[in-house]
Queue: 2 jobs
Job 1
Amino acid sequence: MNAPIPKKGVSGLGLDSMGDLSSLLDEPTQEPRDRGPLMIATDLIDEDPNQPRTQDNPGFRPESIAELAGSFGPKGPKTPLSLRDNEAVPGRYIINHGHRRYRAGKFKGLSVLPAFIDNEHDDDDQIIENIQREGQAPREIANAIGRKLAGGKKKKAIAERWGKSASWVTQYVTLLDLPEPIAVVFNNGRANDVTVVNELATAYKENPKAVEGWLSVPTQEITRGEVKLLREFLSEKNKDGGQHDPVTVDLGSGQTDTDGEAGEQEPGPKTGKEADSSKLKKAIVQVEHDGRPARLMLTRRPPAEGYAWLKYGDDGKEFEASLADVRLVAVLEG
């Protein structure tokens, strides 16, 4: 049986129904004008419980979150959140980056937030982002390094992964095991500079009592310059074996610390040139501090400009004080 012959003018491919092909080629391709991020329901997003920022981070203060929310437009933040699939709860997401934006979105009452899905994210990415924009407190960085070390990571590997030097990592590791007096001033915010804290820790190993006494002064500023002066003073003190200042003078008797041990000596005949009566052989500066008689310890290096070491005349206690709190009484010859 012969196959039917197609009618004239009709294509065997059925293309006759498509009309004029040239008209299709002339029509512009319709592409979406907005290729922005996904809009994810806010109530499907969970914060990462292991994020490096802690709850008391300044960026999480209510006023800081409110300020950030005020900067949002009607569609929320311009910078989308980075999310990953929540493997424990299918259909939900965990934040990689953007915890503050998420909290600000909730504060503003937004039902959806712009976001990208990045399932290749790891916890190092959070650390790197926050470090590079100086968004984390030293204690938080130290704790993150501690977790890495506990998990078997080496300091060198952490430094390479985070784009920092090995010495930088070592400085933060020091914060994990500080001597008690230094831990106190670090935790209460008196010392926030990581370099300063490390310098104090080194000085404490060499002379713990002196450093503890220095830190016990409530008005003592803890800066790089102040700590440098402290270390220089302790270095000089160690060189002379920690001997007492030979110019320590009792205000009642006028004797130095060494006079009593050597015993009084009768003055002998003078030889050579007579001493210049206009010059003091040894100056004793008598002062008053807190209503008590004291003297300046002239050979002890002050911790900073505007400070000096004093010794009370009634109980012999040595301490450092601001010269603004000292009243000059007399300058005598020792």
Job 2
Amino acid sequence: MKTVIVGANHAGIAAANTLLDTYPDQDVVMIDRNTNLSYLGCGTALWVGRQIDSVDKLFYTNKDAFEAKGAQVFMETEVTSIDFDAHLVSCRPRTGADFTIKYDKLVLATGSLPIAPKLPGHDLAGINFLKLFQEGQEVDRQISDDSVEDVAVVGAGYIGVEIAEAAKRRGKNVRIFDIAPTSLASYYDPEFAALMDERLAQGGIECHFGEAVCAYMGDETGHVRSITTEQGSYPADLVVNAIGFIPNNALGRDHLELFDNGAYLVDRHQQTSDPDVYAIGDCATVYSNALHATTYIALATNAVRSGIVAGHNIGGTPLESIGVQGSNAISVMGLNLCSTGLSVRAAEKAGLEVLYTDFEDLQRPAFMRENAQVKIRIVYERGSRRVVGAQLASEYDVSMAIHMFSLAIEEGVTIDKLKLLDIFFLPHFNQPYNYITMAALGAE
């Protein structure tokens, strides 16, 4: 059985490893247009901000590792078209002649593309995106230039907030813009996002939320020098666009069924509307256990799980995805936020009627020298009372608690089940009246 995998980052790598490690009858071909694979883009801001020593360990595998397992790997190779009827993939390498590969099963792991609005001045030099390793290299090169004094970040999601911190660490004047009224609006309710907004401002980052960018202005050399919004103009020697991503569906959009946002619509086996084609990672849909519906959540963790599921199904082991919660976290300027499932705002937008319960307290008893405040919100459906989301904020690392809420959402646990949950107490770790149970006890 020949399986061709188009795209060799997190999802494609997971599918390839599953097939190569588990199913010896598989003939695996991997194709990617980049020069490298397995880049952990979440480490870009840490590298640019000099919080890690080098980029070397941001790559966790390479072409040689897959060739040693018996895979054919074609890097720097563009897939120009796919003949789904004939099961043929047409390829164009950077050097050499074009060629085709026949497949029995095809895996599309083409990922996503950064949103790039064609605003006036969008083609000026000094305007950057952050997804590929090479883009991270270019942003780092520009930030290292002493003539770059003012940095504008457009988009205050995770990537935007993290790169804003990184630029500030490098001694730049930093402004961050977003059309939403707060940072991180896609992940957190305003009461939690406001904590990050405050931390960014305290750290010297100028926040412009609820302010849409209209244009980029350049100098006579064609280099960006300022950014214009609905409310004013601001200096910018370097712009990082981090508005978000859209699914990369170019190869299959005319053949495969698509979701509302253009992602390939897949079932719980990662199978598309073509039974011989699977789609995984950021180009495909996921099943949300909070919504009990198909949705789109672009996360590396989801990509890896989807690759594993597709690999086993192609290999001959029927395996259904258990669904996802979209668990995520961010750590910027000493403030840690993590969430899973739906915020109140996201639930209401999806038409889900929810309630929520908040609680705030010290992580440990007050007599402990090392301590920090913890803020928690648990979101639950009004009728069924099942937990559909949770958010946590603290200077302390409370991230492990979010995994419990992720499982609670997956299993349909109600808010009432958490009220007398058996949680241990020891002053080194927590309070006798734990913030999780206290929040649950405060629910209607």
